[in-house]
């Protein structure tokens, strides 16, 4: 009987989490197409200064080292956005173990390089936002490095159970910057305008809270899901499933809003015109 109840709980939770994953991947890949087309086109055309149409300190004439750091951050962002979800799909993992192994190695390497280049961009090059956001994204980077080391350690030790848990945690913190964009666009959509921060300085209480939530909230949700999977308490399992569903709705609204107002206009502009003219973030 207990086994039957646990199987039923697992089914409810799996349905909720699969819906969450599918929604997230659709949103991440729209973001990925934008990054690929915008930054890729600008770079391949030999106009890296076009990066500055989005990133204020993206390309600085004469600063070869800094430009290489930003370029590697953007290039690896593309591999992270497209390659990350593939690691978590059981069919891909089971049918293509060699791909899983090499894609995983690239993902881990990208995790290190992107975090370190991110540190450089925040603390040396300078980026938008205030000190709270700079500290919070730096904590995000430290979590990425720690989780990447642990995911790799358990893969090497063939401890698949622990490897899986740390790989999922890594995936969640690697997507912190994406959750930030989705959360911001959800907020702008719900308020039909800018509330809780200054758009010129990109500072304010809402952005401070969001910059920590971008990785703490997904991590918390994953821990709840893990506890619920083992719990015999039906009410608790249902509550967790409802929380996941609410998260999906928030994410879907954020993805819709970001796609409509930022990502898709930029994608179509690159595809259908020769010049890139937009300037907002
Ligand atoms: C590991 C996953 C990460 C991915 C996939 C990623 C991706 C990106 C992308 C695509 C951009 C261009 C922004 C846009 O066009 O909207 C960007 C910018 C930036 N990223 Fe990352 N990033 C990651 C992690 C980090 C981390 C951990 C840090 C900090 C420690 C960081 C710091 C920055 C900074 C400072 C910018 C420039 C933003 C600005 O000031 O204008 N990134 N990142």
Automatic annotation (TrEMBL):
| TM helices/strands, residue ranges | 12-39, 64-86, 106-123, 135-155, 167-189, 209-227, 239-258
**Keywords recorded for this protein, A-Z:** Membrane, Transmembrane, Transmembrane helix
- Pfam families of this UniProt entry? DUF2306
Give the highest taxon in the source lineage: Bacteria
Instruction: Show the coiled coil region(s).
Output: none
Q: What is this protein called?
A: Putative membrane protein DUF2306
Tell me if Transmembrane is a UniProt keyword of this record. yes
């Amino acid at each position: 009987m207990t086994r039957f109840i646990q199987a039923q709980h697992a089914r409810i939770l799996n349905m909720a989490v699969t819906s969450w994953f599918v929604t997230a991947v659709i949103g991440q890949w729209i973001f990925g197409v934008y990054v690929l087309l915008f930054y890729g086109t600008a770079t391949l055309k030999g106009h890296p200064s076009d990066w500055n149409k989005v990133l204020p300190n993206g390309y600085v004439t004469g600063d070869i080292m800094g430009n290489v750091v930003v370029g590697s951050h953007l290039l690896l962002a593309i591999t992270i956005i497209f390659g990350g979800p593939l690691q978590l799909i059981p069919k891909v993992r089971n049918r293509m173990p060699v791909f899983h192994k090499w894609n995983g190695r690239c993902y881990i390497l990208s995790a290190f390089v992107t975090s370190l280049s991110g540190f450089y961009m925040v603390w040396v090059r300078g980026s938008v936002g205030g000190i709270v956001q700079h500290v919070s994204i730096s904590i995000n980077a430290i979590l990425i490095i720690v989780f990447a080391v642990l995911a790799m350690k358990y893969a090497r030790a063939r401890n698949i159970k622990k490897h899986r848990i740390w790989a999922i945690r890594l995936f969640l913190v690697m997507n912190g910057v994406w959750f930030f964009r989705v959360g911001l666009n959800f907020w702008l959509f719900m308020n039909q305008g800018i509330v809780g921060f200054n758009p010129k300085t990109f500072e304010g209480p809402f952005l401070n809270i969001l910059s920590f939530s971008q990785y703490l909230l997904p991590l918390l949700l994953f821990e709840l899901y893990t506890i619920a999977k083992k719990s015999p308490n039906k009410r608790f399992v249902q509550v967790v499933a409802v929380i996941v569903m609410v998260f999906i709705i928030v994410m879907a609204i954020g993805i819709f809003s970001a796609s409509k107002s930022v990502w898709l206009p930029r994608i179509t502009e690159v595809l259908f015109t020769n010049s890139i003219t937009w300037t907002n973030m």
